[in-house]
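Lab notebook: predicted structure, single chain.

Context: the supervisor wants predicted structures on file for every construct in the current expression panel, including those that have not yet been purified. This is the next one on the list. No modifications to the sequence; it matches the entry in the shared construct table.
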Amino acid sequence: MTIDHIALIGFGEVGQIIGRDLPATGVSDLAAWDIKFPETDSAPSRALKKSDVRGAQSAPDAAAGADLIICAVTAEQALSAAKAAAPGLKNGAFYLDMNSTSPTVKKEAAHLIEEAGGRFVEAAVISPFPPKRLAAPILLGGPHGAAFLDAGAPLGFTGATFFSEEVGKASAAKMCRSVMIQGMEALLMEALLTARRCGVEETVIDSLSDLFPGPDWRALARYMISRSLIHGARRAEEMREAACTVEEAGIAPWMSEGAARRQDWAAHFTGAVNQADLNDMLDTILSALEFPEETALK
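Prediction complete. Output recorded below exactly as produced.
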């Protein structure tokens, strides 16, 4: 199947990257829809004005006639996006769901798309999307995953692999990975803020380097904390989906739920990301907090 017309549902960070990269593969008919497009000063609206992507009037308008619909929205909007796009799907169109959601949500989205005549493809991105962008490692799932693997390679999806014909398996792998990665971000933020408050941060970092040699723990901690500061709200949504995945497996999701709360909390301190030094970043966050009494051990 030749893919000539592509629609993007969601024009955030991932959607914008895809919108910039697809034209380089020869795609000339590219439309996009984002629920924030009606807000003329929103980040997606500003990005659209600087792009060569056609802005659609709605999700069905973007999807109409498309051979491939790529959905990259926040976790909470994944089902709403599938419902919105479904009326515009042409028969046999691929619907690539790149959203970070639980297996149950993937299955519900798949049902909506298949009922509308589309071909649902589960896509679990198992690394940061940048810097590899379209070539990032992606696990494809569902009965149409193998077909999309062939169709997607000329578009730049060279890091994709077929994972399972069962919808939900790829997302289960993604969510379990998120428990670790987003959980580490939350743990590092909580541990090092406390350590800095108590004046023992250097000892803690040195002990990490001794126990887990290899990474530059100061640089790694600053990077991972900065990701929470920038993307905390989105990561919190993903961690709530991870918690659902853990619970669906019959495990109490204590760590995932705690990480979601910490990621949500981190989103309130985005200004701290401008600090190049880890201690300065931690101090900026601490300076914004209110402490009833001096309880630190400094």
